[in-house]
Structure formats: C-alpha cells, structure tokens
Write a structure and sequence with these properties.
heterotrimer, A alpha+beta (592), B mainly alpha (307), C mainly alpha (322), A: D-Maltodextrin-Binding Protein, domain 2, Dipeptide-binding Protein, domain 1, five-stranded mixed β-sheet, four-stranded mixed β-sheet, 31% helix, B: 307 residues, MetI-like fold, 2 domains, two-stranded antiparallel ribbon, 64% helix
Chain lengths: 592, 307, 322
C-alpha cells in the first residue's frame, strides 16, 4: 500500500544527499581557493619551558637500547641515555659528550678518553668509568644478546677497554680503523648500578623490558621518563641533573616536557598534525600528503622543513644465492648482471620520480645518494633510459618471444617472470613496484607483486625464500666503514646474499678487500678514493638497483623553534635539548 | 516492487558480468601523469575537455578548454584519457575499476552465497530429516559457528594462510571461508522447516512408494524451503559483499592490482587524501547501492508477511 | 531459570576455551613469528637466543600446554609485542570497545524504538513513510561505509576531530575537559555503528507494534475508551517487546564485527584494533586473548539478551524450570 512512496522517497533522499554533497564540495573548492589567512598571534619568544607533543607509531617493547633497536627504544635512548662521544647528525662531525676530550696514540690504536666531571644519573648516582666499562662488558657478553655487538667489532674482534681511574677510559682497537673515535657513537652507555645484577644473572636481554618501574629507568640524557600510560602516551620531563649547558651557560634542555602520543596509524597521525594536536611527527611527510598540509603552511600554522635528498633510497634486488637457483631454470638468466642492467635501462628514472614521489626525488644509480654528501660519487656507470639497449641485453641472454603471448622465454621455453616482495602499507614502495611492473611489461618481462608484512618479508629475505625484493634499507651510519654489514659478503645486511662463508663472486671478493682496506685506512682522502672505486664496482655489477632518492620533508608546527634537521633518523629529536616552543601551553592542574 | 528490486539487483549483476564491455579502460592501466585526476564533466555535445597537469606535487589539474576529446566509448581518445569518475593514486580510471571491481566483489559474494545456501540447505535438511544424534550434533556445530565473532574468525583464518597468493586462489579461499561461516544461518531455518514437513502426508506417501532419503530430500523437502532459501540468500549476499570489502580494506583480501571494491577502498584509509579526492569513495557508494537494492527486496518481503 | 542460566554459562565457557585455543594454534601454525619483526641486522644466533628467551623454540604442544595451565589460573600470558601481561592489555582495550558498543546501543535504542513505535502505529501518512525510507537507507549503510563517509565529512569540515579516542594533549587535563574530549571523539564511530542498528530496531519495532495493534486485547483497550497513545504505551508496546529484545542478542554480535572495522577506520584503541595488530605481528598469546575476550563479550551479550527475554516472557522461564 505504501510501497510506492517508500521507493520514491528513498530515491529522492539519495538524490538530495548527492546534490547537497556536490554543491558543498564545489563550494569548498572555492573557499579553499580564497584561503583566509589568519596570522598567528605569537607571544613573546620564550626559549625556556613548554611542552612539545609528538607521536610514536608503536610502543617500546624494551627500554634497553643495548638489546633492542626499534624506533621507540632508540627515541627513549636519545632522550634519556648518553654516549661517550656522539656524531652530530647535522654536521656529521664527532662531538664530545659524556667524554669531554680524548687523545689518540701515534699508531691510531689507543684512544684515551677523559670523562666529564660531576655528571650524575637522574637518581643522583655519579657517572664514572665503571659505567662505560660495564656497557662494553654487556655489549660483548654473548648471553646478553646485544644488538650493538656487531657495530663495535673491528674485523670481528672486540675492543679492549680499561679504566685507570674513575674519569679515564682507555680503548684499544685491534687494528687501525678509519672512522676512528666515531665508532664509539655506536655505544649506548648503560647504568651499571641498575643493570649489573641482570647481566650477572644472565638476564640482561629481559632487563628494562616494557613493564619496568619508571623509577628504575634512570636517565643521563636531557629528559627522563616520568609517565608511561600504555597504549596512550609516554611523558618525558626535563632531567634537572643533565650536564649540558648552552652557549650562554644556561642549563639544557629548554623544553620542560616532551610527550609522545601512541598513534599506531600513519593517517591518524597526519590528521593530528593538521589539527595541531601534534607538533611534529617522527617520520617525513609522504609526498602525497604535502598538498594536504599546504593550506596549513599558508596559514602559518605549520612549517614544512625541506631536509634535502634522503640518505636512504628504496632498493630493488634479486636473490643472488646460488642455492636458490640451483634447481630453478630461471637462474640461468636471472642471476646474470646483464639482466639487471637491462632492468636498469628499462626504468625511466625521471618518470619514476614523478609517479612515485610526485616529482620530489632525484634519479640515482647506486646505494650512496647525493644526500650523503661526504661519500657520494657522481662518476659511477649510469644506465640511461633506453628500451633498445634493454632489449639488446635481454636478447644477449637468449630471451626472446617464442610463442603467442606477450612475454619472453629462454631457449628452454621458461617464461621471463619473477615475483617481487614489498612492504604492505608503504605507499611509495607499493607505487614503486607497480611502476616497475608497468615498465618491464613492454620488454616482455612479467612481474608478480606481493605486498606483505614487514616481519614476513624480512623472514623470507633471511631465509632466502624470494625471487626479488623491493624495500627500504636504512643504513645506521653515513660512513661506509660503519656499515660494513651491508658491503662485506659476510655481512648480515648483505641483502642479496646474506652472510656468505666465502665471497660468491669475483667482484664481491674485490669489494670485500677494498672495504676492509678502506675501513683500516686513516687518511680521509684515501678512504674516499677507495670507496669511489667500490661504488663503481657496485654500479657495474648492480647487485641491487636504486632508482630514485626522495627529497625529505618534515612537517613541524610553527610554535616549534630551534630545530636542526638531519636526514638521519630521528630527523629532529636527535638534538632535542636545543628545541624550543613558543607560547608554552598554559599549565593546567594535573589530573592524577 | 519486488520485481523492481530484483531487476535492480539483476542489472548490477549484468553490469558486473559485462564490465569488460562497459569499462573504458583496463582496470590495471595506470596513466602516470594523471594521479588523482578529478572527475571530468562531459559537455552536452558528448565530448570532454582534457586535463592538464597544473602542479604535480599537489596533484592539481586544469581543464584545457581549447581542446576536446570524445568519450572513451566513442572513438579513440588516445591523446588524453577521460576519467568520468576521476582516477586513483596510481592514475587508474576509477570508473573502470569500479566496474571490474563489481565483477570481483559481486562475483565472490554470489559464489559464497551459493555455496553457503547449498551447504546450509543440505546440512539443515539432513539434520531435520534424520533427527536424533545427527540432528543434535549438526545443530550444535551450527550454534557454535553462529555465536563465533564472525569477522575475527575470518581475520584469523585469512591471516594464518599465506598472504602471497594469486588472485584466483584468494577468490576461492575467501569464498570458502565465507561459506564456512555462512552456512549455519541457512541450516537452522531449513532444519526447522524440514523437521516440520517430514511428518506431512506427501512425504510419508513418497516414503511408502519406496523413495530413498536422498530423493525425498532433493525432490520434496528442499523445494519446500525454496522461499526461505531465497530470503536467506538475499541476506547473505550483501553481508558477503561487505565482508570482502572489510577484508580487502585491512589488506587481508585481494592483492593490489586486482580491482575489487575492498581494495579500492583501502586507498581511502588515508584521511587527508579522501578529503581532497572524494571520488575515491565511489566503491562505498556502490556498496551502499547494492545493499540498498537487496534490502528493498527483503523489506518488501517483510511487508508482505506483515499485512 | 537457574539451571537454564547455568547451561548457557557452561556453553559460554566452552566457547571461550575453543575460540582462544584455536586462535592460538592457528596463529602458531602460520609462517613467521614475532622475532621476524626485528630480524634485519640482527645475526641468526641473536635471533635464536630471543626465541629461546620467549619460549618460541619449544614444540607447539608444549607451548600450548604451558599456555593452558596459565589460563586455568586466569593468566593469559605475556604479550610478545607489548611485553605486558595480556590480561591488562585486554582489560584496557575491552573497556574502550565496551564504551563504543554501549554508546552505540543506547543511541540506536533511543532513535530506533520511538521511531518504530511511531511508524508502526500509523499505517499510512507521509511521516511514517519518511521514517521507513530513512530506515531502509540506514540499513544499507554498513559500518565500513558509514565510518568512511563520516570521517570524510569530518575531515572536510573540521566539525569533529578525526582519529583516536583522545586528543594528543590529553595529558594533564581536568576530568571535565577529558570527558568532553572523549565525547568529541565518540560521535563518528558511535554514529557509524548505531545507524544500521537503529534502522533495524526501527523496522522490527514497527512491525511488532503493527502486529500487536491487531491483537484483540489491544483493540479491546481502545474500545474501553483509552486514547490511541494510552493503548500503545500500556498494551501494544509491552506486547511487542519480545521480538525486539530478541534482536539485542543478535545486535551485540553484529556490533562486534562492526566495531572492528570502525576501530580500524577511526583508530579507536579498542579490542578489534588490538587483535588486528596482534595478528599482524604474530603475537600468539595476545591473539588468543583477544579471541577469548571477543567470545566472552558475545557470550555475555547473548546471556543478557536471554535474561531480558526471560523477564519479558514468562514462557521462557517456565521452559527453563521444567
């Protein structure tokens, strides 16, 4: 009986909603065009005090940086822990930290460090050379399962450390080492008075796990953890016992408080940055989000810091373990460098940068990007975009189209097809593999893409269970001698063929020799010359392909000042003690 | 009205099946210079003004009013693509993907519905006809599955299976999972109907004429449930479409290059990008339309029972 | 009544046990484990030591047994992902989901029931027709679509904050401000969840009222001179409650499925989001715990619905007693 009006009404309703939505949307477009610019009323600059609010994707699983290298643990360590010396992430120079000065012996093997006087942990316990000794002991103790061990070995041999008195630490290197004292940037100092018992009991790996009472997490850094609401936030307050002073003799840090909100989702994080709930994020703004933030930049609510070209680029590589291809007929051409060269020729890097990074990237031809100013070599072999040259290389490998379909086959009829694994949820990687797949299609090479969880991908990479991978690998240091695990064929991050007993190829043997020589050389110019040579060998053999290095942008609220950005993570908080905020948030009564 | 709603659903199915004919472009074809291009408004004369990139980083485009290209179905507008519903973050035509996606999403839901209804009808009828411990155990299992938190079961099942699978395998796998959680809804009702019909004269007559249980079930008892089965099917179909969208939305459904409504919606997880490119919500509108269509069918059925 | 409840309780316990065990075992069978997450740059021995530390090197049966004996003491183990007891994690997140679900049920009830009574007691007219049309449309907005749409609106207009449960500045807030803050984050997920529920409540209540209105005793009450309103409030509505209350049990189930996707879309830190993260990280005990608490919620929901039904309908009580 009343069916007729119901249908009519629902249609009318739908129409009305659709029309209203359209009108309002087109109106919004116009409004956005006008852009009412509201100037922020900025109170008198007050460099001291205030709260900085930022975010974390995941919670720390451990506060023990010696056994965990995840981002939250690293941030905790940067804010509350210390190092004997540190590498300034902006200038890449070595700076004194807990050690105020050091001297080197004539043979470049013995470093004598003098510790700063009067430094104490946040609970009042004095910091002495015993803490430094203890930290080395923990790093080298096999039961402690420290993640820092490999970064503090030279040719696989530990450093010899002794402490003649409470303020002196003597470190003996087993062999000359090019980066010199820089190596000690890899050592995070652990408080002996808190962790000694755990190390003695063989439970160091479980010490300072997430449930540790906050009072036990003593700090020697600018801040200290004062509140941890799991799933919600970590609150760090100023460490009143922090040793560092600014140029005017004022004690650092300037900020009273740093709050990390736990926001597991990247998109939610961005929304909070937009609404001003967050002052900064812990990672760069994705290129596709720049337009989202642009109106806020125009309204002077947000600053978009351009950090320059990043040091880490997404990398595409084949599985080069001979065992993987022993029974696979594709191994005959898939392992050949000509195949990789053909792929390098087939990718138009300019177009790649336009699609994947919306133009915010530069073409590259090797693992060292122009962002790594000290070590980048512009003179390596480049593979200009040319489908003809790519085809010629493939024909040389015996790949030709032998049947009716669009794909190439080798002499035995095996199709030129491989699968690529990539991280799921990483938009630039997902676009990258799509572009690669589209670019190889006209050549007749079929690419199957699988986007999987990060953990699952790394699992398969370590197990050698993959054809090819497209992912991002972050080197821990810009100095090649400090990322030998990538360069050496025996390294744990020699991604295309991990931890080889003996070099599988002649050119890997050559790189091994050069890199070891490079690491053992003291003269900087000579080190650079050797490393240029390594980069050339790499470019000629292409064990891994690099297409574009992104330009990095960080979105930071305009109330934040005095940030010194770095292209290394954490891009801004590495220098947290100097950061200031304007308009300190009016203090509210704390709720208990 | 039933007829109209049925026609509506039928039209959707026809749309989905004929997507290769209707879609202007291949679903995977990416126009790299047109990432997130806005929908283009066709002129009255049946042509559109092509878009020109105004700002690549901000993904802004302007219509070039000096040139025109024909609609993609009429003539080769190869010099500039035409996006009637805009393009996605890969520069793929949303309209084409929506149509191909309909084939995947509706196809999967139809197959799962068919499976669940068949399995449910057989299990329910068998339980109802035999009675006794068979009845008891089938119904216990059904009860059990019914109270399971469905989406969590689907999530766990899908998450523990290998994630790297070809699209066709995913299609089968997901439909099997859906069948596994969907059949008890059908089985319970069928059992009740069959248990009631079992003692009716015509069944006893068939039995006395020597018809075996299989014959009685297929020829007499299940046809008695036909009306009920149709209603159940119209309830399950939209539920499965939504379930596929949910699975693909969180990345446990189809892999990316496959167009399905869920994989298309996965892009809208980026709130900033949805606000700027609302046309990427088109699959949500499509889901709404299909669910509305089936709801009109069942709402109508309820009214009939009512009055 | 007591025995009836006892039987339901037994069934609920069995459900919780089976669901959590199968979730645990299935996750264990899946490729990869929690150490995959941190494996890059860590040598194989370190990783193996971590496995031993976490007890992941033991055979599945042994792990399952040690988990089971823990569960018997209500100890669901430690989350490998968060390094915290699963029980504390669950209680925090379950509370958040419960807040969402309760608010959605309340909203749906407040909207759905009155509108259903209204549209059901009038056969014709523009008002009921509009209500019906909106209901059918509302039924067709699954939480996934609804939450995406609402988030889109909010992102466009800035009327409501998008994402999460509290603002980032939630620390050091006075209680009132904190409540207001949560309140401003709730409308989007709650509305997305409540819309289809309200619509189905309205439809069911409408049909139930229409049915009750045809009952002789309702007609008799009208004949006794009660106004239409009085007769509906006193007689028709109570009589129509039984099928409506039955729907609440089903609703709690669908709320659970719905809240998963709403939690993912709006980043609400609830059980669904936790389970999703746990699955992705292959955090065995947390997956099992989430599945268990999901089952507990469902069992509780059906139990509450059963009790309500028993109170509303004496026949069920009698059945339980016999």
């Amino acid at each position: 009986m009343n069916r007729q009006p119901r249908l009519l009404l629902s249609v009318l309703l739908l129409g009305a909603v659709a029309f209203a939505g359209w009108r309002w949307w087109s109106g919004a477009q116009e409004r956005a065009g006008n852009g009412n610019e509201t100037e922020l009323v900025i109170s008198e600059v007050n460099p001291r005090g205030g709260t900085l609010t930022t975010s974390l994707r995941s919670e720390p699983r451990s506060f023990n940086r010696l056994v965990m290298q995840a981002v939250p643990t690293e941030l905790f360590s940067i804010l509350t822990q210390g190092k004997l010396v540190r590498v300034n992430r902006s200038t890449q120079e070595v700076e004194p930290s807990l050690a105020e000065k050091w001297s080197v012996s004539a043979d470049n093997l013995t470093y004598t460090l003098t510790l700063r006087d009067g430094v104490t942990w946040s609970d009042g316990t004095p910091f002495t050379s015993a803490d430094a000794l203890f930290s080395f002991q923990a790093v080298y103790d096999p039961k402690a399962a420290s993640v820092l061990t490999s970064g503090l070995l030279i040719n696989g041999v530990p450093l010899k450390v002794s402490a003649p008195d409470a303020r002196t630490v003597v470190v003996k290197y087993p062999a000359p080492f090019g980066p010199g004292i820089r190596l000690l940037d890899n050592l995070n100092i652990a408080p002996k008075h808190k962790l000694q018992a755990a190390l003695a009991a063989g439970k160091f790996a479980a010490a300072w796990a997430a449930g540790t009472p906050i009072a036990d997490l003593v700090s020697i850094g600018p801040f200290m953890l004062t509140r941890y609401e799991s799933g919600q936030r970590l609150v760090f307050d100023r460490n009143p016992r922090y040793w560092k002073k600014d140029a005017a003799g004022q004690p650092l840090p300037y900020l009273d408080q740093v709050i990390f909100e736990v926001v597991p989702d990247q998109n939610a994080e961005l929304v909070r940055l937009q609404s001003g709930q967050l002052d900064m994020l812990q990672q760069q703004v994705r290129p596709e989000d720049i337009a989202t933030l642009r109106p806020l930049v125009n309204q002077k609510k947000l600053q978009l810091l351009e950090l320059g070209v990043g040091a880490d680029a997404d990398v595409f590589f084949f599985n080069l373990r001979p065992a993987k291809w022993a029974k696979d007929p594709r191994g005959a051409w898939l392992q050949r460098k000509e195949f990789r060269q053909a792929i390098s020729h087939a990718v138009d890097r300019e177009a790649f940068a336009n699609t994947v990074f919306l133009g915010a990237g530069v073409p590259i031809w090797g693992p060292v990007t122009p962002g790594n100013k000290n070590w980048f070599s512009p003179n390596v072999t480049r593979y200009p975009f040319s489908l003809e040259r790519a085809r010629a290389l493939l024909t040389g490998l015996g790949l030709a189209n032998r049947d009716a379909d669009e794909w190439l086959e080798d002499e035995k009829g095996t199709e030129a097809r491989f699968s690529v694994l990539t991280y799921r949820g990483n938009s630039s990687l997902e676009r990258s593999v799509a572009v690669l797949r589209d670019d190889l299609k006209p050549l007749g090479i079929a690419v199957d893409v699988s986007a999987i969880e990060q953990g699952a991908l790394v699992d398969r990479m370590l197990g050698g269970d993959f054809d090819a991978i497209f992912f991002v690998y972050s080197a821990s240091s810009l100095d090649p001698a400090m990322s030998l695990d990538f360069w050496l064929s025996s390294g744990s991050a020699h991604i295309w063929n991990i931890a080889q007993k003996t070099p599988a190829t002649e050119w890997e043997r050559e790189i091994d020799q050069l890199m070891l020589k490079q690491a053992a050389t003291i003269d900087e110019a000579e080190r650079k010359r050797i490393f240029d040579q390594v980069q050339q060998i790499f470019a000629a053999n292409l064990p891994a392909l690099y297409f574009v290095a992104p330009r990095l942008y960080m979105g930071v609220s305009t109330r934040v000042g005095d940030v010194t950005p770095s292209i290394m993570r954490p891009q801004l908080l590495w220098d947290a003690e100097h950061i200031t905020v304007r308009q300190p948030a009016p203090s509210k009564p704390a709720s208990q | 009205m039933t007829r109209r709603a049925a026609l509506f659903v039928l039209a959707l199915i026809v749309f989905a099946v004929s997507s290769p004919l209707l879609a202007p472009y291949e679903p995977g074809r990416a126009f790299r210079d047109y990432l997130h291009a806005p929908p283009m408004r066709p002129q009255l004369s049946g042509v559109v003004h092509p878009l020109v990139l105004a700002d690549r980083l901000e993904q802004r485009y302007e219509a070039d009013t000096t040139r025109t290209v024909p609609l993609p179905w009429f003539g080769a507008g190869l010099d500039a693509p035409v996006f009637l519903l805009g393009s996605d973050s890969f520069g793929r035509d949303v309209l084409s993907r929506l149509l191909y996606g309909a084939r995947t999403s509706i196809g999967l839901a139809l197959m799962a519905t068919l499976g669940a209804v068949t399995l449910g009808a057989l299990a329910g009828a068998w339980a109802g006809y035999r009675g006794g411990w068979i009845d008891e155990s089938v119904m216990r299992v059904a009860d059990f599955v019914l109270v399971l938190p469905v989406i969590y079961v689907v999530l766990v099942l899908r998450a523990v299976l290998p994630l790297v699978l070809p699209a066709s395998t995913v299609f089968l796998l997901v439909s099997w999972i859906f069948v596994a959680v969907g059949w008890p809804f059908v089985a319970k009702g069928v059992r009740a109907i069959v248990a009631a019909e079992r003692d009716r004269e015509y069944v006893q007559a068939a039995q006395s004429l020597g018809a075996g249980p299989a014959r009685i079930l297929v020829h007499h008892l299940i046809p008695a449930c036909a009306g009920y089965l149709i209603v159940q099917a119209t309830l399950l179909l939209p539920a499965f479409i939504i379930a596929e969208a949910t699975l693909s939305f969180v990345g446990l459904g189809f892999p990316d290059p496959v167009a399905s409504w869920g994989t298309m919606l996965a892009e809208t997880a980026n709130i900033g990008s949805v606000a700027r490119f609302p046309w990427t919500l088109a699959p949500a509108a499509a889901i709404f339309a299909v669910v509305l269509g089936t709801n009109l069918l069942t709402a109508d059925h309820d009214t009939k029972n009512d009055r | 009544m007591g025995r009836y409840l006892l039987r339901r309780l037994g069934f609920a316990l069995l459900l919780v046990f089976v669901v959590s065990s199968s979730a645990l075992l299935l996750t264990q069978l899946a490729p990869g484990d929690i150490t995959s997450d941190i494996a890059l740059g860590v040598d194989a021995e370190t990783r193996e030591r971590m496995r031993v530390e976490l007890g992941l090197d033991r055979p599945i049966a042994v792990q399952y047994w040690s988990w089971l004996s823990g569960v018997a003491r209500l100890d669901f183990g430690r989350s490998l992902l968060y390094s915290r007891p699963v029980t504390t994690l669950l209680s925090e997140r379950a509370l958040n989901t419960a807040v969402l679900a309760t608010a959605a049920i309340l909203l749906a009830t407040l909207i759905g029931l009155p509108l259903g009574v209204y549209s059901g007691s009038r056969a014709r007219g523009l008002g009921p027709a509009i209500v019906r049309a909106i209901s059918v449309a509302g039924l067709s907005v699954p939480p996934l679509v609804g939450s995406l749409f609402l988030v889109f609106i909010a992102a466009r207009t800035g009327w409501l904050p998008v994402g999460g449960m509290t603002s980032a500045s939630g620390v050091d807030m006075a209680w009132g401000a904190w409540l207001a803050d949560i309140g401003s984050h709730m409308p989007i997920p709650v509305m997305a969840l409540a819309l289809p529920l309200a619509a189905s409540l309205e439809r069911l209540q409408s049909q139930a009222i229409a049915g009750a209105n045809r009952e002789p005793f309702v007609a008799a009450s009208r004949a006794r001179g009660l106004t239409q309103r009085e007769s509906i409030v006193r007689h028709a509505w109570p009589a129509s409650l039984r099928p409506v209350l039955g729907l609440y049990g089903v609703m709690i189930g669908s709320l659970f499925s719905g809240s998963f996707v709403v939690e993912v879309v709006t980043s609400w830190p609830g059980l669904g989001r936790l389970m999703y993260d746990a699955l992705r990280a292959r955090d065995l005990y947390l997956v099992a715990g989430c599945a268990a608490s999901g089952a507990v919620f469902l069992a509780l929901g059906t139990l509450v619905a059963d009790v309500l039904l028993a109170i509303a309908d004496p026949r069920v009580r009698a059945e339980g007693r016999s």
